[in-house]
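Crash report, auto-generated. Payload:
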Amino acid sequence: MWQERKADLVATMKLRRQSLAKGWYKYSRNPLSVLGLIVLVLIGTSAGLAPYITPYPAHAGAFTNFREAGQPPSWKHLFGTDRIGRDVFTRVIFGYRFSLLLGVVVLSLGVAPGVVLGLIAGYRRGTWVEIVIMRITDVFLAVPPLVLALAITAMLTPNLLNAMFAIALLWWPWYCRLVFAVASSLRNQFFVREAELCGASRAHILFREILPNCVAPILTKMTLDMGIVILLGASLSFVGLGAQPPTPCLGTMVADGAKRLPGEWWSTIFPALAIVLVILAFNLVGDGLRDVFAVEEV
Amino acid sequence: MAKFIGQRLAQSLFVLFGLSLLIFFIARVVPGDPARAALGFLATQDQVEKMRAEMHLDKPFVVQYYYWFTGLLRGDLGKSSYTHRPVTTDLGQFIPATLELILFATLISLTVGQVTGVLAGYFRNSWFDGLSRLISYLGIATPSFVVAILLIFVFSQLLRLAPSVGRLPIMVAPPPTVTGFMVLDALIAGRVEVALVALKHLLLPAVSLALIHIAQEGRITRTSIVENLDKDYITMHKVHGIRTSRLVFKYLLRPSIIPTVAVIGLDFAFLMSNAFLVELVFMWPGFARYAVTTMLNKDLNAMVAVVLVIGVTFAMVNLLVDILITFLDPTIRIQRRGG
Amino acid sequence: MALLEVVDLHVGYRVFEGYLKVLNGVNFEIEEQERVGLVGETGCGKTTLVKTILRVLPVPPARIQRGQVLYHGKDILLMSPREVRGLRRREMTAIFQDPLQALNPMFTIGTQLRDILKDSQERVGRGQRTQRAITARCISALRDTGMPDPERIMSNYPIQLSGGMRQRVCIAEALSRNVRLLLADEPTTNLDVTIQDQILRKLDQLVDQRGASVLIITHSMGVVRDLTQRLYIMYAGSMVETGRTKGVLASPLHPYTQGLMRSVPRLTGQGISDGIPGRIPNYLQPPSGCRFHPRCAHAMPVCVEAPPPFYPAGDNHRVACYLYRS
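Recovered output after restart:
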């Protein structure tokens, strides 16, 4: 008995390995996606190890050294120093930390409720359940997320935690709508009807039959959204509603440095390019995933 | 068709009602004391209490909403606690400046995006296609405020080609307000040189807003051109000897343009939210800057109005886009007529 | 001189996995006012052949390696785009397999038909009279295909028409102008059986009236028997047998043709045959020599070495098979 099961498991694992290999093959056909992945891994590891690999970890916080303030890029300070003498390179790496944290937190809070609601609405299409869920979704999607995020954070005390909370609150409707579209198209497929005829529970149908078919578009959208959420976070902190000084946050750094253009250009241009780089990398990876999963549009 | 528009209008009204509830909820329930914020730290407790009563902050949520809603029906959105003027007056003053900016940006992004998209798609895999793909990747990944800062740095500060602040130089007297669009007003007043200066001021902010959309629209158009080039009916048009200009500008462009038109609504919304940042960078005296300033000052009435205005604009643009698509795409037109 | 003559045509596709050698030395010809059938399995290169002749093959990924497509002795593959357009406007045209995809969904039937006529004529005035004349010709072209109520159809969009009606529109598009050669690539495959016959008869009649030549590509033996005078059998990118339709059908010589004939289900109670063992080859690494040899019961050592030339077998009947070398 257990041997059979083991053989089964081995077969499944083999299949999984094969489909992974095939997926990687498709992914690697696009050199830009591979480049994006490499950049992401680099950014991710350096952000994770920031306290150990940056030249001046102390500069991430409230540190001042006016003797070295406003220095242009050199070997000592790759990206120069800001107006109070902190190493811009160090702060950019630490800034990535907060950007990535923001993206991960927002998506992990926002995706699950959106997916569940979308599944329910899609499966119960045409009932009042769908109408209630989707109309509420419409309300949240009636203005761009940045506007509502600004409003919410402005009402609360501006800081990183509240920015995360505000964006997460606004993120579920996108997934609700995406999953709704997939689920309502799958509702009448044979495998769903069969499961119903076999007397499967509603939870089984939603999470074991329909959900697996939504994974590809969800994953792709999540990757692309990481870029968008990071952008949104940077925008909030650019306005002054995100993480407060001395937290090294890319948007705040750009805003601070912009006041000192064109003289000390490095203190704003490098953080700005850092934002572009991480969003670009997420977009490239997302496009690669889209090729792998053959997702039309998310 | 009329039935379709009616349905969509009803749906939009419902959504806007929901939106007003949502934003009202955010504004009133979230901790913080707007009355205190409006009066500043020097005000006495009595003054704050009086202000609270004046703003109906001491009443339950439903009552507050009722007061606000009946006000809305009378065309009264309350008083801004930041500018101390009726919110409607503020909006009337600031919206045209933003509209000018957004419309100009839309014009740029639609034309440039369409043309590059069509060319890149028609000459796919050429050097032009490669270049435009590269630029579009960068365009999509670059936040508009970063574009704005880069443009100011390069074109205004280094090359001194274009101004970076406001709508007109301080020394130039603005033309009398007719449309609220500085360029048009100057032309109406017959001051061509002022119109040119205003246009120059408009250039950098509009380009910073437009860039991301140029990239997106170019990409969508390219994809749909490529998709349509492979369609049997294009081959058939060729086989029947249709001349190239007709083939490209009529038979290829019409089906390809629809996906681009379909995203205009969403694009417009994102243009508006990007305007929030771009106006800050360029100190553009517009609606978005007003919005950010009032939000930062916890100006409840202004904030609710701002969000609603954006919601209404978004809903209207989407409705227009839907109608436009119905006219462009006979397939949808026939389906709607039938069902 | 033949109206159309294809000489030793090699066409392939560059794909990610490598190079697909599809057309492998195609030779065939069509005389003036002749009706020729071309029979072969799905995937044997029929559509590639038609698209090459019409110069609508997407290059790349396709690549024309060598060969000639002579129209009145002039190589179409070497013509300028301008000459090619002239050719499509006045000399040759085509009908493709899928009528659902062949019409632009964004424009009315009338618009599409009118534009073809406008562009096909050298001298077309802008006056109202010319416009009206063009419309009249479109309507009569539609009526000729047996389309009911052509005036109304002119203002309809493709989505409003059934598959059969759309194929009639395609035929009207092809025959609205006087072309000398019509290439019909499986014109009825995607239609209901009851409509297939009607449409084919109408097509036949129209081609007859106009004195045009026609190449009918199909995998139905019944269609070629009824409609064509001469017949080509194609296998994996080259012609394997040709001759008068009656002769070839009565006494097929090539082993592939014989297998094909056996595969036709009959209603005489003999049951369904086994067909031909194996399947059409992989074009990435096609078999050397005669591409049919891996599936052929009569394969000889020589078959692996070089592709067989056509051997005459009497009365215009020719066959590319070493069995008939003597």
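Post-recovery validation: Chain B has a mean pLDDT of 81.
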